[in-house]
Design a protein that fits this description.
Elements: H1 2-23, H2 35-73, H3 75-84, E1 93-96, H4 104-108, E2 127-130, H5 142-146, H6 154-167, E3 174-180, E4 192-199, E5 206-212, E6 221-226, E7 233-239, H7 248-265, E8 278-283, E9 306-311, E10 314-320, H8 325-329, H9 331-338, E11 347-349, E12 391-393, H10 403-411, H11 413-431
Parallel strand pairs: 1-2, 3-10
Antiparallel strand pairs: 3-7, 4-5, 5-6, 6-7, 8-9, 9-10, 11-12
The structure holds a DNA duplex (16 and 16 nucleotides).
Length: 436
DNA sequence: CGTATTTGACCGGCGC
DNA sequence: GCGCCGGTCAAATACG
């Protein structure tokens, strides 16, 4: 537990470093021959900031959308959420959910509705929470002001969808994650116990069933199956909501799936579950995500290669991470294109661990992950090709490495949020055994 | 010996 | 009603 807390601290330190660099404004000589390049980078930076701002706006919109829905459906529970979601002192507070409350069983179990209270360790400045809902306590800065979007009349727009949904009894939501993975199961930071295996129809590869064993009462289950078309692709399907705190690494994965689950809860993004066994709505568009059936101001969330479907009355959202257009082509790609210009004498990397948490040490395949520090030489560490040499330079500039680019980048809370997303992606990659 | 995994049996939902 | 199929249970087995 202590080690898990250390990881969160590491992440916090990481942001602290970024913040320090934000404060550390290094003057740039106006007469520098690099002015042209600086201007170019500035322009690129502006574009990047704009993109990030757009993403955050959309997220904020989704959050309000979700809160609105949640308060309607579960007014008492939402009060708890609101009270838990407090202290806007700049610390990020994240409530995560996976799945829906559509199941009666879950309604009977109050533990699935509430967020977990703050940990007593007062030194944990940043805290991750699990529970229903996904909430960010944004810093009250200029950017968050920008995020105050006028929310369209969601209720009226939603009603039609809700009526449609009400006609079809849906079971617990599921989130499928497709990753390229050579190991038997993708390591998502959680602890699982296998309880069954089946040969599913249409796929010669057996499907393994796992339940979460971090807590004996945790209802979360997952099943893992190799893709029939491409055996290197592992399809992991999650169902249920963790009723216990998660390690930072597990939280990262959960945040991805919870975001997807939130998408399922978003009426405008929910596919119309037809009477057939499976119906699919695909979301696509810029940032590698597609969307349809919704006006531009309502794009609920940005996830790459996302598909929503229903299978046997289970609303299922599939995150296809076998390719990552979101990360490769959009905001982060801009960032990655610029980063090689920076030196890396002091870098933040996501590579091998210097230690593993006590929690994860119990795992069969403990996730190898650290936010800060140098790689341990003897450790094999992994990364997907698209993240090769993913580093954020925090070093003083050298040669043609304009200092204010990174400074401006890191000064933006949007950037930090995007960075959190990238961490999630990296956890995913490490878990899937991709090389770093 | 305790815990995790395997595997056949069983159950419930769904379509015909 | 019957069969198929996905999902779960639980006894047997493996493992550390």
């Amino acid at each position: 537990m202590a080690a898990s807390s250390n990881k969160e601290k590491s992440m916090f330190s990481f942001f602290q470093i970024i913040e320090e660099h934000h404060d550390d404004q290094i003057p740039v000589s106006k007469t520098s021959p690099q002015d042209a390049e600086i201007g170019e980078v500035r322009e690129e930076n502006q574009k990047l900031k704009h993109t990030l701002s757009t993403v955050l706006k959309d997220y904020k919109s989704l959050q309000m959308h979700y809160n609105d829905f949640f308060q309607q459906e579960f007014p008492k529970s939402s009060e708890n959420l609101v009270t838990d979601h407090q202290e806007g002192d700049g610390n990020e507070l994240i409530c995560l959910s996976l799945g829906t409350l559509s199941s009666n069983k879950e309604k009977d179990s109050p533990k699935k509705v509430n967020c977990f209270g703050k940990s007593k360790g007062g030194d944990d400045e940043q805290e991750l929470k699990l529970g229903l809902g996904c909430q960010f306590d944004m810093n009250k800065d200029e950017n968050s002001k920008n995020l105050e979007l006028p929310v369209p009349s969601l209720k009226s727009e939603r009603r039609e969808d809700d009526d449609l949904l009400d006609q079809i009894p849906l079971k617990k939501a599921r989130v499928s994650v497709k990753v390229v993975c050579d190991t038997q199961t993708m390591n998502d930071g959680c602890q699982w116990r296998k309880y069954g295996q089946k040969i599913a129809k249409g796929n010669p590869c057996p499907r393994a069933y796992y339940r979460c064993t971090v807590s004996s009462s945790c209802p979360v289950r997952k099943h893992v199956q190799r893709c029939a078309e491409d055996k290197s692709v592992l399809i992991t399907t999650y169902e249920g909501t963790h009723n216990h705190p998660l390690s930072a690494s597990a939280t990262a994965m959960a945040s991805t799936t919870s975001a997807a689950a939130s998408m399922l809860k978003s009426p405008s993004s929910t596919s119309q579950p037809g009477t057939s066994a499976s119906s699919t709505t695909t979301f696509s568009g810029h940032h590698g995500m597609t969307y349809n059936s919704m006006p531009p101001h309502q794009y609920p969330i940005y996830l790459p290669n996302t598909t929503i479907s229903t299978y046997q009355s289970h609303p299922t959202i599939t995150l296809d991470l076998t390719s990552n257009p979101h990360f490769n082509r959009s905001t982060s790609s801009n960032f990655l294109r610029t980063q090689p210009r920076f030196s890396s004498s002091s870098c933040i990397n996501f590579s091998s661990p210097s230690s593993s948490s006590s929690m994860e040490s119990n795992y069969k395949n403990p996730i190898k992950f650290s936010y800060l520090g140098n790689p341990t030489p003897n450790e094999a560490f992994y990364q997907k090709p698209s993240y090769d040499n993913f580093k954020i330079s925090s070093s003083p500039p050298s040669q043609n490495h304009p200092p204010e680019t990174i400074t401006t980048l890191t000064s933006n809370p949007s950037f930090r949020s995007a960075l959190a997303a990238s961490i999630t992606s990296l956890v995913r990659n490490v878990g899937s055994g991709a090389k770093i």
